[in-house]
């Protein structure tokens, strides 16, 4: 039978099936009137090849490691090497965090991921008035190169890859990392890792911005340019949908707004005179993994396909490496419940499967107690073990993109692509992501989804186990991690000592040179590196740039 | 007095997680209250100034950074200093461990709403516990 006749036969059969099913529905109605995904996209009763009539496997999927990379960025995927298991960690002082990193490496973790405290992320020293109460709370406090030397003490930087969740002051922390490596005898060319460096999503969803849009974009392109020459193995940005999703977006919005941000960075770098293939291979992405397993898998596949097409067709990339969307995944913090926290282990396992079936390059699994506090060592170990069980026992890593060809998954992938492209086109018409953020458009779209989600839960249209169904009476959880409240005082004392020991004339000379360079169009990375090496503090360096650039004023959107 | 309940929703400190603050702000608004949302990164001093200027009945503070032990009581202290604490109901919300709540309450936070609290619970609490008669 020819293809067409086969399809016609199926269509006839489907029609009969629909009629038969409609009859039985009178006696056995379905659980709900309407079925939707985790992101409220409609789900049909059944998917068949009739849903994929225009489907072209060659064009839409290709093969693993080949354009448009729907099936993954490497030909052998996890048969070659598992994803990097990378737990985001850091709290209190550099000494405490250094201990946690060594523990994680001993437990089989294969990369580091540094969490900084909020003052560090916003470019304030620990003794700044606004830092009070925040020092060491959500991550490690880093005030100067001194702290960074302690943070990586005994960890050979030529042998680990390090991801740093740092955005507005990314250039400063990268400079500190380079300087620590140098002291270990490791050259910048040997360094592997990632800085988040994604300021647009800070304006949208995460909030640790410092400077206005324009100088922020300049710092980012300065880093692209510097690293392409000096630190060629470094991923210069991690364009993040994670926080957009945590802020309440749908899966489609996560893809759309993240890739729209990515486009803005590409355009800024091209504008600054960089050749697309010189920086694009070092762009990386960061996505969320929520509970709707198949929708999430489709999301990752759609994101890869869209990015590949954009890079090739819109930006004229020639190198395939520029077209590959490589990404880190973190399981969804906002999906965890404070109620019956052990249930979170199961949620994280499902999300781990989503990330792996979606072809992630690295993964952080959340710990069960994160809706309550920072995770304890025990709960972090369970989270890491979850990845190891999926890797070694589940079988899903044994072949590339195992869900390809599923009628449902391919249809979802197509729908997410179409939905995201509609958003991307709208944002392009508005003048790109920075303009859309300035107008509050992206923030408002996310907020609408977040509020809708909350209402669904409160009306019991959406069930979250333990939260609005299957509740139990529970005692308050015990043994949560507490950050030593004296961390702030300890950091202040360290700063006092530092300011007494260093060559303060050198420091002010370097800061003056940085300030002078900031008003020109020079690449600021070498100036920042010089200041860092003289032990200028993070707050001093960011303060100098604040004087020149000013600060971003948030547009408040409800 | 016959006017809608006025609520200041604020994010003290450096914390950027504002999903909860915005969701609660919208829910209070839909419940007929007048809501002023301050945006991110406010010092306790700025929050108290805004509360006085906007003549609010409720200050709802959202915090997920772990700095609640320091920042929430500070807002209460400043409200007391400005002699408006007797008129304003102060609430907290966010990732705040259960065991920290008694101390926050003893320091003048009327109630703390942790993750998973339905917005209706907060709305009812406000209506039943206003200090100023509407």
Automatic annotation (TrEMBL), chain A:
Keywords: Isomerase. GO terms for molecular function: cobalamin binding; methylmalonyl-CoA mutase activity. Signal peptide: none annotated. The keyword Isomerase applies. The keyword Isomerase applies. Coiled coil: none annotated. Residues 39-551 form the Methylmalonyl-CoA mutase alpha/beta chain catalytic domain. InterPro entries: Cbl-dep_enz_cat, MeMalonylCoA_mutase_a/b_cat, MMCoA_mutase_a_cat. This is Methylmalonyl-CoA mutase.
TrEMBL record, chain B:
The keyword Metal-binding applies. GO terms for molecular function: cobalamin binding; isomerase activity; metal ion binding. CDD domains: MM_CoA_mut_B12_BD. InterPro entries: Acid_CoA_mut_C, Cobalamin-bd, Cobalamin-bd_sf. Residues 4-134 form the B12-binding domain. Keywords: Cobalamin, Cobalt, Isomerase, Metal-binding. It comes from the Bacteria. Its cofactor is adenosylcob(III)alamin. NCBIfam families: acid_CoA_mut_C. This is Methylmalonyl-CoA mutase, C-terminal domain. It comes from Anoxynatronum buryatiense. The lineage of its organism: Bacteria, Bacillati, Bacillota, Clostridia, Eubacteriales.
